[in-house]
Specification:
- Strand 5 and strand 6 form a beta hairpin.
- By secondary structure, this protein is α+β, with helices and mostly antiparallel strands.
- The chain has three helices and eight strands; from the N terminus they run βααββββββαβ.
- Strands 1-2-3-4 form a four-stranded antiparallel beta sheet, covered by helices on one side. The chain has a four-stranded mixed beta sheet with strand order 7-6-5-8.
- The two termini are 22 Å apart.
Amino acid sequence: MVTNNQVYRQEIIGSRRLSNYWWAIVVTIGGIGFLLAGLSSYFHHDFLRVSDTSNLQFVPQGIALSFYGVAGSLLAIYLWSMIALNVGSGYNEFNKEKKQVVIYRSGFLGKNRQIELIYDLDDVQAVRAEIKEGLNPKRALYLKVKSKRDIPLSPVGEPMALSKLENQGAQLARFLTVPLEGL
């Protein structure tokens, strides 16, 4: 993570994760399967070779299957587009030579496709660790900047291990010579 004594850079993994690929594949197969079953009941032709759809009536069952198929297919398109665009990927760079902090993330298509936040290194007050346990645990690092909201530094997704969070927070706070809060 540290490239030299003057630059500290953290790479952030976006939506190209194994879990996102898994869910995109599952939703694609399910959406196409439901859609083909619904269309089979409408056209009275078996588009699915895996199961027998000749007993399905279009009015109650076929319409519901078609609706779920369209909804699943649209969700699959959304998931595959997120993976293709690698939404959320980027880096956090702390540069002592330039005296600046650069937070970069990739987003969706449009004018905000690339999000780049640049702050002076002198404006950094602290590194804050947020730890919430329970049903929906949250473990994240934030950068406290003068007169701004706290900026999230951790990737979105599964919460990182507590020891990893502590190590990353302490290493970053030591590099920036600011206090580590929240532990």
